[in-house]
Amino acid sequence: MFPDPSSRSAALFQRAQAVMPGGNTRHSIAISPHPIYAQSGEGCYVTDADGHVYIDCINNMSANIHGHRHPAIMARVNEQLDKLISAGMPTEAEIALAEAMVERMPSVDTIRFCNSGTEALMFAARAARAYTGRTMIAKIEGGYHGSYDGLDLSNKPMPENWGPPGRPATVRECDGIPPAMAEETLVLPVNHVEAARTLIREHADRLAAVFLDPLVSKLGFLPLTKEFLDMVREETRAHGIVLVVDEVFSFRLGRAGAQGAFGIEPDLSAFGKVIGGGFPIGALGGRRDVMAVFDHLPTGTPRVEHSGTFFANPVSMTAGLAALDLLDTAMFAHLDALGDQLRAGLRTVLAELDLPGMVTGQGSLVALLPHTEPFSDYRSFIAGFQEDGGMLARAFAGMINDGVLPVYPRGFILSSPMGADTIDRIIDAARNGLKKAREAQNAA
Question: Which ranges of 186-300 does DSSP label H, i.e. alpha helix?
């Protein structure tokens, strides 16, 4: 039973603490009192270091859209491994993946690859600054865009430091980010059309880019409203500001990603996760004239340097193309149906148990939240957690012990090997976990 101080996972965590700060190298997957260590995976299942098998609803934070070791991806990766792992030379594999991405994305004329979503977003900021000659960038309050200093700001501010509703403060996410970075980042209030419009106009002569994730991953998959998206697109065009859509998490919403689902055409788009078939990847693509800042051919020297030892490595390129080939219209319909089934089932469970809460999400992304009132921005989202009492965290442990591994403590990221029966098992585990959590809360 989790947590188990006698488990191999607990022992591995103790061992890790001797050689890694906090025994961890990814804060996003740290759970208390110890993490569960993965040993192997197959399809939609992952096996831990103690031999326990789970339905994997983490899927490496959305990277494993086809689960673990999909046969079609593995076959092409193994073929590539037999030929070449990496080289200080370009390969045909990167051209093939670039062609596939350009064909899918109407807003992408050209594209370049890197190793992570964070890198893609960092290069997006650099490209926008070079293209516009301006230095300031803007993002929405509560929006997460990786760990680049200029964007790792106001991800989770609190009432004591978040400033007025219509003029959010720019709050550094952690120590180590220079205060000067905060001075170059404007924070926009989520879905507040006129307040955000005013801020963009006030800073237009300094703004190089506005960054948006149309389905905000850290806010229970909160969708940005059409009115807000239309306003941002209108203002950025009017003032020559580069609009960057962060597709790193939400590309799985459809063949043309979140921008296709939400009907917005950005100037630049950042990608990662899904497009690597489970291997490390990032990419930045967009309008030809903006992307031209990376082009070294006219003068021999690019305006923006873009290099990395493992950028466009042939293994990630091959796996990514295999993953995209699987993501046809029928596959997206399958993933969407799984998400709809899970959302409906979790809502039924809340009603059956007479528990407060709501279920949110879109496509194959699902969140179970303690909120009893609708939320439309970061601050109303935060307010909804005040009366939870930690019940969902307790339900998380119950789901683990029932063979389901959610994103701690309330997220579900689905994969293509899942079927309707898999979703039924997830719903049953949630029901049992919530029952036990309520009993524990009542007994306290």
Answer: 193-202, 226-238, 257-262, 288-291
Tell me which residue of 180, 182, 158 sits closest to 170, measured CA to CA: 182
Residue 432 sits at φ, ψ, to 5 deg, of: -65, -40
What pLDDT score does 101 carry? 98
**Beta-carbon count within 10 A of 36 CB:** 24
**Distance of alpha carbon 75 from alpha carbon 90, whole angstroms:** 22
AA identity, residue 380? S
- Chain segment 164-219, per-residue pLDDT in tens: 999 999 999 999 999 999 999 999 999 999 999 999 999 999 999 999 999 999 99
- What residues form DSSP beta bridges with 187? 139
Cα of 341 vs its chain's centroid, Å: 22
Asked if 270 contacts 124 with a C-beta cutoff of 8 angstroms, the reply is: yes
Residue 390 Cα distances to 385, 394, 396, angstroms: 9, 7, 10
pLDDT in tens, 426-437: 999 999 999 999
CA nearest neighbour of 215 among 247, 263, 241 = 247
DSSP code for 133? S
Question: Domains, the chain, ranges and CATH?
Answer: 8-65+328-443 (3.90.1150.10), 71-326 (3.40.640.10)
Q: Which amino acid is at 289?
A: D
Residue type, 107: S
**C-alpha radius of gyration, the chain, whole number:** 22
User: Of 432, 422, 436, 434, which is closest to residue 57 (Cα–Cα)?
Assistant: 422
CA 9 to chain centre: 26
**Average pLDDT taken over every residue of the chain:** 96
> Which of these, 96, 153, 161, 163, lies nearest to 321 by C-alpha position?
96
pTM: 0.97
Name the phi and psi angles at 141, rounded to 5: -65, 125
202 DSSP assignment: H
CB 169 within 8 A of CB 189: no
SS3 93: helix
CA dihedral 30→34→39→41, nearest 10 degrees, is -50
Q: Which of 76, 42, 113, 15 is nearest to 322 (CA)?
A: 76
Q: Which residues pair with 140 in a beta bridge?
A: 188
Among all residues, which ones are annotated catalytic? 144, 246, 273
Token duo for residue 262:
């939400």
Contact criterion met (CB below 8 Å) for 57 and 429: no
